[in-house]
Design a protein that fits this description.
The complex is a heterodimer.
Chain A (H helix, E strand, L loop, with lengths): L18 E10 L2 E11 L4 E5 L6 H8 L7 E6 L2 E3 L4 H6 L2 E4 L11 H6 L3 H4 L3 H13 L15 H14 L4 E5 L7 H16 L3 E6 L2 H7 L2 E6 L2 E6 L6 H9 L17 E11 L5 E11 L3 E5 L6 H9 L6 E6 L2 E2 L5 H6 L2 E4 L3 H5 L6 H6 L9 E2 L8 E2 L1 H14 L16 H13 L5 E5 L7 H16 L3 E5 L3 H7 L2 E6 L2 E6 L6 H8 L8
Parallel strand pairs in A: 3-8, 3-9, 6-7, 7-8, 13-20, 13-21, 16-19, 19-20
Antiparallel strand pairs in A: 1-2, 1-4, 4-5, 9-10, 11-12, 11-14, 14-15, 17-18, 21-22
Helix pairs in contact in A: 14-15, 15-16
Chain B lengths: L1 H34 L4 H12 L2 H25 L8 H18 L6 H28 L3 H19 L7 E2 L6 E2 L25 H17 L1 H11 L1 H6 L4 H18 L2 H8 L10 H11 L4 H17 L12 H46 L1
Antiparallel strand pairs in B: 1-2
Helix pairs in contact in B: 1-14, 2-13, 3-7, 3-10, 3-12, 3-13, 4-5, 4-6, 4-10, 4-12, 5-6, 5-10, 7-8, 12-13, 12-14
The chains are: A alpha/beta, B mainly alpha.
Chain lengths: 522, 371
């Protein structure tokens, strides 16, 4: 179902649009990032651009912000055609961008961060302070100019970034995936801020792939797929599901489990596990839980609340300060990572590029990684050289993984870095599910992958669960957690603060639980 | 297409990089020669002529053998991103103790040579192992500790190489050295037609070390762990590699090969570790490892090239050209090979990504057409 509507402004609007992109195209070597992109943004609108990862949203915004130059097409601001050579040109035309990854200096104050690079506007002292206070009040941002950025939370940092672009005189503000790093309560605050901006006559371009949020805040929505704009719709006219299907171009995967396969045989048990930081602070604080065969146990939490440390403790990468880790009946607390992997714990690390792959090594060597001591990767084990790498066996098995897990690659000898994120992740999932593991530690298994890979990975997890695999699922995607978990815990400041029932809990309730509040469900 | 790119990446790339770097180095050297008033072409012709004489060839092979061992020792560390600058101290200490051992003990042939070589490898390995242990237990950078250990080994050698300890007066000179190794412990050389000197017998040891290095790094699990830790320490840890253990093992291995570096000279020519035993070879090894891209075959070519430049430059003094000109060549070739390799590497990587992208694009178009 592809519905493309003509992108004409509603009748009665005579003023030229704030932003008009016509026929924008941009090619990178071997990849068409954008083609035939048409977007019209009204003055004073909150305009959302939605699309999957890789749909070309970020490329388009970089073009609008002058970071990239289009190969074809025109950009018009307030009805006037422009050609940007650098972000400085875009800023001069009143366009500001808040990047997904904040660009703030931690060791400077808010005021210093805002003024940095814009000293010529209002100086660096009282003039700047006055201007920041004015802006902060006018848009209800509540920024405290003398706090150091390192002490600010994520939401506050984002407001500093917004204030930074306002300070530079932006009238059109681009927000790249602004909610990706926020918990639901912070998202609400952000939307309040956006409405303030809108009330003051500013135009907001909002990039996202979270559809509920888009429907809640946007006045107009442009959908991108495969590098082009496929539809322009009004939020009142579509449902989240229709929007998602426009984005994907087909039916949408739903994270869900069918009949329960949970048994009462514990596969992995944590008993009062604590992990300390170098300074002796508890990063994981006496966590006890049991994952049974055939069960997916989800851990929800705001980033940085001990999930990463918990996972590393289970994998033996980080020492456990107190408590025990049991694999079935075996106490594995003191085991090395390798021994744990050999005993049947699979591991999908949260950062696949840093922890899951050797980017410059060919796929088949990446299939060996993490399973260096097991057939079919090695033969004649033993000795201090640890046996011989079975290049033939590893290649053959990599081909099997490529086929079974639908890794799109021309062969097993290409370096891992040349695959897309989704295909890299399929390879990792395939590798970790090979050799009949008993437990799988899956940290953000579908982060940053396309919908196709996401659906496939969910499918693989379901199948493995049906065969008795016990899975620890750590994720920031609340829908994924609720849909894919048999049991669900919230982790806050290293402690398991709540156990919720994934069958009844809503994302909002889970969000409250993640920040330490108590939801209704016990 | 990706296969070709892959092949090019593995084999062709270093060759192309080396050729470009060599051409560039020759150009720079020519410019310097011309600037000093010499005729570059004549100088090169003299160098090639002198360097291809039989005696020169023997010297080049002998010197190259030593350079090769030195560079392999460095390359083992490099493969894991460990910078063993201490090869110099490791080989000098190992050669001195092995020479003393060989001079004091009486053993039958074969056993005698083997024992001396094992002692050298053990001493080198243990000495380098100190740096490895310091790194994993105290977090001391191996760059600092190995270079400091160089000075300590100089001190130890000076202390031990005294009369009444390990040294005796060398006959007919003021020099002192360890007692000469008896004939039972010497390694005979190979004659080369037309040459008045012989090729070190232990050139075979260098070949064996090269093969062992290639097999160990390329074919064994130990080598896989080593390379994984070099490519991405974080991914290696997550895959179960015990990185501290690998650091110590790699340093010991690197040091053991470093320990062998003095053996061809000791057992083939000097038979004693005296005050005039060659020094500084460990640092040359760093440059040669870089030039050979840490590859066993690449290093062999690099070592021979280096030795050729050293040897053939001797003739230049006769023509009023400072032979130190080759140091410029050597320095330029190392610098430019590093730069060129990186440039070509990025180019090949971009090619591969493009090939993957194109192929997948084609697949999807086919899939789209059939769907």
């Amino acid at each position: 179902m592809t519905q493309t509507q003509p992108d004409t402004p509603a009748p009665g609007e005579s003023a030229p649009p704030a932003v008009e992109l016509r026929g924008i195209g941009k090619r990178f070597p071997g990849v068409v990032a954008n083609h035939n992109v048409d977007v019209t943004v009204r003055h004073g609108a909150v305009h959302a651009i939605v699309g999957e990862n890789g749909a070309g949203k970020s490329t388009l915004m970089k073009i609008l912000y002058g970071m990239l130059r289009p190969d074809e097409g025109t950009i018009a601001i307030d009805g006037e055609t422009v050609a940007f050579h650098s972000p400085a040109d875009a800023i001069a035309r009143g366009i500001g961008m808040v990047h997904q990854h904040f660009m703030l200096a931690d060791n400077l104050t808010v005021l210093e961060n805002i003024v940095l690079g814009a000293e010529h506007l209002h100086g660096i002292a009282s003039g700047a302070r006055r201007r920041i206070a004015e802006l902060s009040d006018a848009y209800g941002l509540g920024v405290q100019p003398d706090r150091r950025v390192e002490h600010l939370g994520v939401g506050d940092r984002q407001r500093v970034e917004i204030l930074k672009v306002l300070y530079r005189g932006a009238r059109i503000i681009i927000l790249d995936e602004p909610t990706a790093v926020l918990v639901p309560q912070e998202v609400d605050e952000l939307f309040g801020n956006l409405r303030e901006l809108q009330r003051e006559g500013l135009t907001v371009l909002f990039i996202s792939h979270k559809l509920d949020e888009v429907l809640a805040v946007a006045d107009a929505i442009t959908v991108m797929r495969d590098g082009t704009t496929v539809a322009s719709v009004r939020p009142s006219e579509v449902t989240a599901r229709e929007l998602a299907e426009l984005m994907v171009g087909s039916e949408l995967p739903v994270p869900e489990l069918r009949e329960s396969t949970v048994t009462d045989v514990p596969a992995l048990t944590l008993e009062g596990v604590s992990v300390l930081s170098a300074e002796g602070r508890a990063l994981v604080d006496s966590v006890s839980l049991a994952i049974h065969r055939g069960e997916i146990l989800g851990i929800a939490g705001v980033e940085g609340n001990g999930q990463a440390e918990l996972v590393e403790a289970i994998m033996g990468v980080r020492p456990v300060a107190a408590g025990r880790v049991l694999l079935e009946d075996l106490d594995i607390t003191g085991w090395t990572t390798r021994r744990r992997r050999e005993a049947g714990i699979g591991y999908i690390p949260e950062d696949r590029q840093r922890h899951g792959l050797l980017l410059e090594a060919p796929l088949w060597e990446n299939r060996v990684l993490g399973h260096q001591t097991q057939p079919p990767n090695v033969k004649r084990l033993g000795g201090w050289i640890g046996g011989w790498v079975d290049r033939l066996g590893a290649r053959r098995d990599t081909r099997r993984i490529v086929e079974t897990y639908e890794v799109h690659t021309p062969g097993v000898d290409v370096p891992a870095t040349s695959l897309s994120g989704g295909n890299q992740q399929r390879l990792i999932v395939g590798r970790e599910m090979t050799g009949s593991p008993r437990v799988l530690i899956a940290a953000h298994p579908t982060r940053g992958v396309d919908v196709g890979a996401q659906a496939a990975i969910w499918g693989f997890l379901r199948e493995a669960r049906a065969e008795g695999l016990a899975v620890l699922l750590v994720s920031a995607d609340l829908d994924e957690l609720i849909g894919m978990s048999d049991a669900l815990y919230a982790l806050c400041r290293g402690r398991l603060v709540a156990r919720v029932d994934p069958a009844t809990v809503t994302p909002e309730e889970l969000g409250i639980a993640m920040t330490g509040g108590m939801p209704g469900a016990g | 297409m990706p296969l070709i790119a892959g092949r090019l990446g593995r084999i062709g790339l270093p060759v192309v990089a080396a050729a470009v770097a060599l051409a560039f180095a020759a150009a720079v050297t020519s410019a310097v020669l011309a600037a000093t008033g010499a005729n570059p072409l004549a100088a090169f012709r003299q160098m090639i002529g002198y360097g291809s004489q039989p005696d020169s060839v023997v010297n080049i092979i002998n010197r190259g053998t030593t350079y090769y061992l030195s560079a392999v020792a460095v390359a083992i560390g490099f493969r894991m991103r460990l910078f063993n600058i201490g090869v110099d101290g490791q080989y000098r200490l190992a050669a001195m103790l092995a020479a003393a051992f060989g001079g004091f003990v009486a053993l039958p042939p074969v056993l005698h040579q083997a024992a001396v070589i094992v002692v050298a490898a053990l001493v080198g390995g243990l000495w380098a192992g100190i740096a490895g242990v310091l790194k994993v237990t105290r977090g001391v950078s191996e760059v600092i500790s190995t270079i400091m250990l160089n000075f300590i080994s100089t001190g130890i050698i000076a202390f031990l190489l005294r009369p009444n300890l390990f040294a005796v007066q060398v006959q007919g000179s003021n020099n002192i050295g360890t007692p000469p190794i008896p004939p039972s412990g010497r390694v005979p050389g190979f004659p080369l037609t037309g040459a008045s000197i012989q090729v070190f017998g232990l050139v075979l040891l260098a070949v064996a070390v090269g093969v062992a290095f290639a097999v160990l790094v390329g074919r064994t699990r130990f080598g896989f762990d080593l390379r994984a830790a070099g490519l991405s320490p974080s991914a290696a840890v997550a895959s179960g590699v015990n990185v501290p253990q690998m650091v110590v093992a790699t340093m010991v291995l690197s040091g053991a090969v470093a320990g062998l570096l003095g053996m061809p000279q000791l057992l083939g020519d000097s038979f004693t570790y005296a005050l005039d035993f060659p020094t500084g070879l460990g640092f040359t090894g760093i440059a040669i490892a870089l030039l050979g891209r840490n590859h066993p075959v690449g290093i062999a070519f690099a070592a021979l090239l280096w030795a050729f430049l050293d040897q053939s430059a001797q003739i230049l003094d006769l023509f009023g050209i400072a032979k130190e000109i080759v140091i410029i060549t050597q320095a330029t070739v190392v610098l430019s090979v590093v730069v060129v390799y990186e440039v070509v590497h990025r180019f090949v990587l971009a090619q591969q990504q493009r090939a993957v992208g194109e192929q997948l694009g084609a697949d999807e178009r086919v899939a789209g057409a059939t769907a």
